[in-house]
Amino acid sequence: MDMASHPVPISGRAHGPAQRARWASLANDAAEANAFYAPDMLCAALDHLAQVPAVRLIESCNGSDLIGLLPVVVLPSHGRLPLPCAANWMHDHCFFGAPLIRKGQEMAAWRGLLAQLDAAEWAPGFLHLQGLDAAGANAAALEALCVEQRRGRREVHRYDRAMLRSELDAERYWETHVRAKKRKEVRRLQKRLADMGAVEQRMLTDRAELPHWCADFLALEASGWKGREGTALACRAGDAAFFRAACAAAFDAGRLHMLRIDLDGRAIAMLANFRHGSGAFSFKIAFDEELGRFSPGVLIELANLHAVQGDPAIEWMDSCAAADHPMIDSLWGERRTIVQYRIALHGRGLARLGRGLAFALANGAEALAARMKGQS
């Protein structure tokens, strides 16, 4: 089999129409969905979020066929350890890190990606892979290849986050997974909110409304605690531009899923989801904190539940939430296990020796910390 892999620089519009079309073809046939690395979001991130650190786009090919794509950066440290390493690129607004790998070519694609990193003089230490699905096709193929190549592989961290995957309709799901007391409280809040004015739930369907919806979302998110802490998308021009560009590209590709609840024509809760394949990723949620007594975040998630379960094209949705999230964990019953791996890199001569030492040092420091924690 003719295998090749090479890094694509992001300068010089390397992700122009031709390159984007190649990535779109790969994304459409991906073994594992990842909206964050599909061209809609990836190209928007490269345009607006990739100034520092430099991003290398590693492609794995079978002849002229693209079978794998992994965005990679070099990190100056690994957690608290002063060990530089290569890592899959997960910017502040990326919540899943599985590379795009063509279905049925998982082992071959990983073989090409890792061979590229083994040969790269710029790739120090080891490969730190973040945000993978422990039960996904990427993790399974990677484990098998590491065994085949006698390549070191270490699980660094794992946690469970909420996921929506059910054949139940929205009402049945709501009754099955949410406590009766909470359901009663939500009905009461809906009635109280309706007493305040005209309440309307809407999904974005008109391309002409997209700029207005994006502006409303950015303003709503910035009005709350994220704005006060400087983490809202609107707090940085690049982040806001990324959001607008990603939403526009995804809408044009039929992959944007955006909802809002209005009170007397004013947005009080909004959320944006990005679809890929048969699934979707819950990207961001924003709501009016001054109306917190009505739990607008829960109300928009209830609207989202109806929208997702009522759409036969969406089989599942990843919450992209932190572990033990108090709100979404109480509404969605399924869980997705997210893992991080440390993968040894090979090479030749001193490079191989240095990488082996870095991998061993990281493993040893981790084992020592675990022992010390167990003794405390």
TrEMBL record:
What is the top-level taxon of the source organism?
Bacteria
Taking every annotated instance into account, which residue ranges of this chain make up the domain BioF2-like acetyltransferase? 180-308
Q: What would be one Pfam family of this protein? A: Acetyltransf_6
* Protein's name in the database: CelD-like protein
Q: What is the lineage of its organism?
A: Bacteria, Pseudomonadati, Pseudomonadota, Alphaproteobacteria, Sphingomonadales
